Amino acid sequence: MDTFSFLARSAFPLVWIVVPAIGAYLRTRRSPSPRHALETWQRWWAIGAFGFGSLWMTVAFLTVPDEMAAVIGFERTPFMTEIAFANLALAVMGFRAASASARERITIGLGGGMFLWGAAIGHFHQWFANGNHAPGNTGGVIVNDILIPAVMIVLAMRSRRLAATPQPATA
Prior knowledge:
Elements: H1 3-11, H2 15-28, H3 34-63, H4 65-72, H5 79-97, H6 102-130, H7 140-164
């Protein structure tokens, strides 16, 4: 695999972080309040990063399992179907988080984090213990596995703090 192909395959998962971040940034540049901006960020993150990112993984694992196995650096196994449906569960949680309370978003972030952070540990183990430098085992996928649930949790915690802060009276 040439260097450009490796970098493109390794970096592709970052689209699920970059697009929601750009979308939320553009949408909130003239936001009427910090609460409104934070809510917009949470929705973009829930739908774009968590929802569509996980849905993409579901579709990829179900429709092109041989390609996914090659990208990850493994042989095709029946467990790939299980990974597909675990990602479908994350997608459903991400889409649900778009209209959830801050407390629910924290729970969704923690639930997703248990799977994705465990996956990140597995990627690091494969990388360092077994020398698996496949583009789907290193790079963007690790960043996604760590940041997607972490950002969901941080945004939701910030939202809870803002909700607890008294708002100034309007005239």
